[in-house]
Amino acid sequence: WRALAPRFREALALASSGIPVQIAADRRYQRRPTRAQIERAFAGGATIYMPQVHQVLPRVARLMAALRATLFGPGREECSFLFLVNGKGRPGMGLHHDGEVDSVWLQLEGRRTVTTGPPVAPGTRADLHDAAVGGGWHTQDLAPCSLFYMPPRTPHRVICHGRSLALSLTWKRRRASSKEANSACWFWIACCAS
């Protein structure tokens, strides 16, 4: 898992190399930032992310292919994101859900705290009010080597209190299933202690 993506410092250099990158801070998004804007965002603790990063990281592409073959099946729209945060304890994207996608997260370096709630109804707008957090919600820390699965339409908020490097891999649902899980689940990869 350590060889899937570059280490934190190299990932920051990758973000400034000219590949597609976006910045999120306090629910405001910058779609095509300059190198100087990326540097300011990093210093300020914003969330920097690289969409479709599997197109430049072959090991991530192979992981996605393996997950597709064993868990999610063919013919689904898939996306990958590499998230890089110099955390200052602020949520970049705020409370939101990602829609009809199955998500697998892999925490590569540092930690992040994720709060998740029960899936929202189909058609619910993506950005949610913080007042929605209530009963049935869970908060957990994702340590390095944590693998986390999140069902479709699961509301979540991520906060980083230090440096964090993580992958997010998603597969769009063909149609919603009545048997989907009611909350997010997570587990550690057994070999991460080595």
Describe the structure.
This protein has 194 residues and is of the alpha+beta class. It contains three helices and eleven strands. The chain has helices at 8-15, 35-44, 58-72, and strands at 22-25, 28-30, 47-51, 78-86, 101-110, 112-116, 138-142, 146-150, 156-159, 163-172, 185-188. Strands 2-1-3-4-10-5-8-11 form an eight-stranded antiparallel β-sheet. Strands 7-6-9 form a three-stranded antiparallel β-sheet, with no helix packed on it. It is globular and about 40 Å long. The relative contact order is 0.21.
Percentage of residues in strands? 25-35%
Low-confidence stretches: 176-194
- Give the oligomeric state of the chains in this entry, treating copies of one chain as homo and distinct chains as hetero: single chain
Kindly state the number of beta strands: 11
**Secondary structure category:** alpha+beta
Sheet with most strands: strand arrangement: 2-1-3-4-10-5-8-11
Mean pLDDT across every amino acid position? 88
> What's the end-to-end separation, in Å?
11 Å
Give structural attributes.
disordered C terminus; eight-stranded antiparallel beta sheet; alpha+beta; three-stranded antiparallel beta sheet; 194 residues
Short structural description:
Helix content is 17%, strand content 33%. It contains 3 helices and 11 strands, in the order αββαβαββββββββ. The chain has an 8-stranded antiparallel sheet with strand order 2-1-3-4-10-5-8-11. A 3-stranded antiparallel sheet has the order 7-6-9, with no helix packed on it.
